[in-house]
Amino acid sequence: MQRAIERRGIPTVSVTVARDVTEHLKPPRAVFVPFMMGHHFGVPFHRGLQRRIILEALDRLTQAEQSGEIHAIPTTWAQARREGIAIEKELGLRT
Amino acid sequence: MTATSSDREQLRPGLWATVNERYPGSMITTPDLVPLARLEKPLAESRLTFVSTAGVQPKGTLPFDVVHPVGDYSFRRVPATAEPADLEIHQLKYPTVGANRDLNVIFPIERLRELATEGVIGGLTPHLFSFIGYNMDPERLERTLAEEIAAAVVADGAEAALLAPA
Fold this sequence. Notes:
heterodimer, B: 5-stranded mixed β-sheet, two-stranded antiparallel ribbon, 21% helix, 16% strand, globular, disordered N terminus
């Protein structure tokens, strides 16, 4: 999919939680986050993290030098969850 | 706490091999690389599109066929102006525990609109694109759905594309 779009001259970048699958697929550009499947942009209500993942992915559009590079975003799922829980407490969604 | 290298490994290791064992031949391995296309304008002037395998679709559109044995090779256009309340998810293959509370964890339509409003990106295409990842015939997917979405992305005037294979 990504390769089909890139072949049409449109630069592409994907966000993946499965580095091994991405290594097999060889998309032109990718960022890897060590998050749970279905949670590529982080945790609920954590706007800052959701935004950061998007921006780090978009950075690859200008920064990536070689096709097939997978850039790991330095974060952990545990940290994302901790921050998400704190935000939910602030929002009164969790006691 | 400093992240260690093991912290950064995927949460579900060996996914490719696991799925390929369960559904032989369903996983793609590509031998070659596609040459990089380049942004023709700065990102702040470029129109971005988003392509998702999350099975997100506008309420009222034909639900993805999540029980078909070989998968659903159709896609849906999601208006870039849609609110999360206008959208629903039809798929069975990834946990939606987060997305059910905040769709932006898998389909960050509100964050993308904010970046467009702030001028970080030049704008969004009129539509974003969505399909389901459960497709057991990768050759058919590459021949049909991948090409159809790529053509739709071009027709929508995209100058850059963000993808999230769920």
